Amino acid sequence: MKSPAHRARSVARLAAVQALYQMETAEAGSEAVIREFADFRFDKDIDGEALAPADEAYFGKLVRGAVEHQARVDKAIRTRLAEGWRLERIDATLRAILRVGAFELIGGDAPDEVVIDEYVEIAKSFFDGPEPGFVNGALDGIARDERPA
Fold first, then answer.
1. Is pLDDT above 80 for 51?
2. Most CB atoms within 10 A, among 27, 75, 80, 103?
3. Which element (helix H / strand E) includes 69?
4. Distances 12 to 17, 72, 141 between C-alpha atoms, Å
5. Which fold has domain 4-146?
6. From the DSSP assignment, how many helices (H) and strands (E) are in the chain?
7. Which of 115, 96, 95, 90 is nearest to 33 (CA)?
């Protein structure tokens, strides 16, 4: 069972993926989206169901970091794509998962296994095909590239 702090980070990771997706599809800026999540999504309920608390500071760090370091993040992801595939061809949700996960591997301090597992689980919540396996392989490769043992 996850501790409340671990659960709050998991919620922050999922929200960061959603924020990056929103930024790309709505062409919104990172600070506007971070503010929207703080004002309207965190600590709210949906149809009477309370949402799990999020680590809002961590959420902001992930969103800002993925945006600020997007060139490096995208380069790390591109090295894991099949020959001839462009990052732009990947589904926007999958691209957001990879970007936040790659940023966390590049600029974060959580153990590789935790980061990879978290983003594979997020992928499973959106996809029921091969995408979670792709996320696992891509992020594992990025971890080896960025955090050599």
1. no
2. 103
3. none
4. 9, 22, 23
5. N-utilizing Substance Protein B Homolog; Chain A (1.10.940)
6. 7, 2
7. 96
